Structure formats: structure tokens, C-alpha cells
Amino acid sequence: MDRIPILRMGETLLVTIQVDMQDQTALTLQDDLASQIAKTGASGVMIDISALEIVDSFVGRMLTSISGIARILSATTVVVGMQPAVAITLVELGLSLEGVRTALNVERGMELLQRAREESSLGH
Amino acid sequence: MAIERAGTLPLQSEHNIVASRQMVRALCQELKLTLVDQTKMITAASELSRNTLIHGGGGTMRWAFVENNGRAGLQLVFEDQGPGIADVALALTDGWTSGTGMGLGLPGSKRLVNDFDLQSAPGAGTRVSITKWK
């Protein structure tokens, strides 16, 4: 089974999904991210899905669940790079990715995580 | 509706779900569907392949290039010999779930394609046919 690598960049964990994942691979990624957040004390998680040609309800649920787990562990998650055709399909499928923060690309995702860090250090 | 070319794929493991997505992607590209239509068809195939595996205990996906009044399309038929669905109308309602998912697979897939046909009865397995027209 493939395992998706998790890179650490300062206070951010970076995940780039580049393969068509089996369901089990997605579940493993969810578990790996939860333990990495706890272990490193990362305050941000960025998931780059620009290479994904589809996001079905299973992967959508994984993204929602990672965001929830990270939030409880005091980290902000941002999903970046979703292709327009994927966004159109997700909405028609009925999946709104509620609670998942998104950004158009990696750069904007980094800005979003930086703002989230500043807000939390100000006690907002 | 005339069938131009057809084939069958097994759906017996998670690995087969990935294979079915890749097969459907290649077929959609061959049919020259738009990128959005390709994405919708592959996503629907992914949902229905998973249903066949998880709820139906495994089965097959048959594919066919079809033609109707000069219009070309791709038809996918997902079949299993599993427990079947007691209330088909209820299963097509958003949010209804047998417990393991979010209840989007069937109604969501229906919205992503042009034609959708679901046949099932308790103990008689399930057959879902979807078609995307060019």
C-alpha cells in the first residue's frame, strides 16, 4: 500500500497528494497526520490536492475529518489547489466540505495559515 | 440504443476501485467528453464501484460505448449479488445511509450523469446503470 509522505516546514505540515489513493491509503494519511500534529505541535496543515483529478465522497470525508481532528489538536488545516472541475463535481455530488478551509494555491494557503497563527497568538 | 464496443472489470477489492476509475478516465478521454463531464463520470464510477464492493460484497462493472440517434455515450453497469436494497426510493434520498457512509453515493451519482437506472430487491442483488452522453 502507498503511504503519503508528510513534510514538516517550520510550524506547518505539508501533504501533497499525487497518486490516485486507495481508500485505505486515505485512512492511513488521516491517522498519520493526527499523530504528526500531536508529535510536532504543528499549528498548521496544508494539503495540496492540485494533482487530484477527482475527489469522491470518501476522499471528501477524509478532508473534512482531517480538518476536524486538526482543529481539536489546535491546528488549522487548509486544502489548496482544487481543480475547478473537481469543485463543480463536488458541489453537484452534494459535498460542501463544511469546516474545511481552502485556498487557490500553496502561496495563498501559506498566507491563510500565517494569519491563523497571528490571530491565535493575539488570543482571538 | 446500439452498443459499439464493451468490456467488463471485476470489483472485488479496493485496488479494483482505483482500476475502475482509471478505466473510466481512459474511456471518457476516448469519447472526448469535456473535462467537467469526465470528472463527473469518473466520480460517479468511483462512488458506485465502492458501493458494489462494500454493500454488494463485490461484483462487476460493465462498460459500453453506446449510440442513440447519432449521439455517442458511455454506459457503465455496476452489478452485484449482494443483499440488495429494500427501499430503492429511500436509498436515492440525500443523506440516507446504511451506516458506513454519508448517504451521498447513490443520489449524488445520479446528479452527475445523464441517465441513471437502479434495480434492486432484497436478496436479489443490485444493478445500477449510468450513462453520460456526449
Structure description:
The complex is a heterodimer of chains A (124) and B (134). With 124 residues, chain A is an alpha/beta fold. Chain A has a single domain, classed as Transcription Regulator spoIIAA, CATH 3.30.750.24. Helices cover 48% and strands 18% of the residues of chain A. Chain A has four helices and five strands. Chain A is globular and about 40 Å long. The mean pLDDT of chain A is 94. By secondary structure, chain B is of the alpha+beta class. Chain B has one domain: Heat Shock Protein 90, CATH 3.30.565. Chain B is 37% helix and 33% strand. Chain B is built from four helices and five strands; from the N terminus they run βααββααββ. In chain B, strands 1-2-3-5-4 form a five-stranded antiparallel β-sheet, with helices on one face. In chain B, helix 1 runs antiparallel to helix 2 and helix 2 packs antiparallel against helix 4. Chain B is globular. The two termini of chain B are 14 Å apart. The model of chain B has no long low-confidence stretch (mean pLDDT 92).
Low confidence ranges of chain B: none
Q: Which CATH architecture of chain A would you pick?
A: 2-Layer Sandwich
Can you tell me the residue ranges of chain A where pLDDT is under 50 for at least 5 consecutive residues?
none
**Tell me, what's the shape of chain A?**
globular
